[in-house]
Design a protein that fits this description.
Blueprint lengths: L37 H69 L1
């Protein structure tokens, strides 16, 4: 069975093994932009695939930066809560000391 591929289902996904595109007879000559050389097309394709492979890493890095930022904010909020709690405790201790001093002076 020797079927040719279609645009949606090519015989091969390797661009080197695909048939080259033929110029259209509907367009006048010179109306389209000139073809790229094969080497630059391959280089850009390799760069594109390398970039595509690096996307998950970049997303993971961004996600980790966001998580670190959230953790830092949470730690800062916890430090604030602890500082307020210690301040209230110190104020209560100060009031007790003041009362004790007042009681000692009155006797």
């Amino acid at each position: 069975m020797n079927t040719t591929g279609t645009i949606d289902r090519p015989l091969t996904h390797d661009p080197k093994k695909q048939a080259p595109m033929k110029p259209s007879t509907n367009e006048p000559a010179g109306s389209a932009i000139p073809d790229f050389t094969t080497t630059s097309a391959n280089d850009s394709r390799q760069n594109r695939t390398r970039e595509m492979q690096l996307i998950p890493e970049a997303m993971a890095r961004a996600h980790m930066r966001e998580r670190i930022h959230e953790a830092e904010q949470e730690r800062q909020a916890m430090r604030l809560v602890m500082a307020r709690r210690m301040q209230r405790r110190a104020e209560r201790a100060s009031l007790r000391a003041r009362r004790a001093l007042a009681m000692a002076v009155m006797q």
